[in-house]
Structures are given as structure tokens and as C-alpha cells.
Automatic annotation (TrEMBL):
SUPFAM superfamilies: cAMP-binding domain-like. Residues 11-114 form the Cyclic nucleotide-binding domain. This is Crp/Fnr family transcriptional regulator. It comes from Hymenobacter bucti. InterPro entries: cNMP-bd_dom (IPR000595), cNMP-bd_dom_sf (IPR018490), RmlC-like_jellyroll (IPR014710).
Length: 191
């Protein structure tokens, strides 16, 4: 577990051994079973999560009790309800495991301290935050401007190995289409 995370970090920045040890020592390790919640809508998001293995999803439930999937987080992805984590307000989203998932967690206090004390980690997180914002804008644009078939192809490009791991109804939810529409699209698409 530590090796995967350390490889992730060292591929993205230059850290001293002491900084890497500081990052690892602040880490909580949690094994989630399939369908186990990491965060429930209405609770305060107290942790930043890094997926070592498995896959998480972040979703919101509409007034009609329909789940709307906003993000998937497979291996080497970060995930939390950032608004709740930052503000301390109740989360608007739920995070659960789509399969058995190993995550590394940092409390808000540890997270802020690590960013203050390790400039390379702070720079990495700022870079990832900017990339995440760019990806959200692209996803919003894709959702409102592209036909369903092109949204599906964009999903396959963004998550090339995920379509085999995630149930089709969840992919449909992520794309904003019905399961039936996704079935038609998949019939005309060769993988």
C-alpha cells in the first residue's frame, strides 16, 4: 500500500525521505467492502481519500430518489466532497465503494498541516485541483452539448478500463442517459 502511494507521489514531484515519511505517518488506511459508504449525504466530509485499489463513486440523490453519479475514482485517484471538506458543512454527496476498495485517508487537520509543511505536496495538490476543475468544466460542456453517443465515447476515453468494472446503469447515470439508451449506443459501438 505505501509503495503504491509513494510511487504515485515520486512520479509527480521531488520529495525528501523525511517528507514521504511524514505523508505516510499521517495516513489512515481503510478497507471498504463493495457498497460500503465512505461518506453519507448530510454528514460532514472529514477526510481526503486516495484510492489504492478498487473504485469509489461520488453521487447525489435527487428529489425523485434517483442517483446522479458525478464522479468515479478508480486506482490512483483522489476523492472527497470538497465543499463539505473545506467548509465543514453537511455533504451534498454520498461516496461509496463499487467494489472492495483500499483507500488512504487524511483528516482535514492533517491535510492542511501537510500542505503547509511540504511545499511539493501543496504544489501537487494545487495542480490536481486545477486539473479537476478543468475536467469538471469539460464534463459539464460534454453533458450539455454532445449527443449521448459522443458522451459515451468520452467516458471510454477518460476511463478506458472502467466500463468493464462498473454496472451499466451507473455508467448511464454518469452520462445522464437511460439504461435503454446506453444499451442502444453500446450495440453500435465496438470495444
Amino acid at each position: 500500500m505505501d509503495e503504491i502511494f509513494l510511487n504515485y507521489l515520486t512520479a509527480r514531484g521531488t520529495f525528501t525521505d523525511a517528507e514521504l515519511q511524514q505523508l505516510v505517518s499521517a495516513t489512515l488506511v481503510k478497507q471498504l467492502k463493495r457498497r460500503e459508504l465512505l461518506l453519507r449525504q448530510g454528514e460532514v466530509c472529514r477526510y481526503m481519500a486516495f484510492v489504492v485499489s478498487g473504485c469509489l463513486r461520488l453521487y447525489r440523490t435527487g428529489e425523485d430518489a434517483v442517483e446522479h453519479i458525478l464522479r468515479f475514482a478508480p486506482e490512483n485517484w483522489w476523492l472527497n466532497d470538497y465543499e463539505s471538506f473545506r467548509s465543514g458543512q453537511p455533504a451534498k454527496s454520498t461516496i461509496d465503494a463499487l467494489e472492495d476498495t483500499l483507500v488512504l485517508l487524511w483528516s482535514k487537520e492533517s491535510w492542511e498541516r501537510l500542505k503547509r509543511e511540504i511545499p511539493t505536496f501543496d504544489a501537487l495538490q494545487n495542480h490536481l485541483l486545477i486539473r479537476s476543475l478543468d475536467a469538471q468544466v469539460d464534463r459539464l460542456h460534454t453533458t450539455i452539448s454532445l449527443p449521448a453517443e459522443e458522451r459515451y465515447h468520452a467516458f471510454l476515453t477518460s476511463f478506458p478500463n472502467l466500463y468493464q468494472r462498473v454496472p451499466l446503469h451507473m455508467i448511464a447515470s454518469y452520462l445522464g442517459v437511460t439504461r435503454k439508451t446506453l444499451g442502444r449506443i453500446r450495440q453500435h459501438t465496438s470495444l
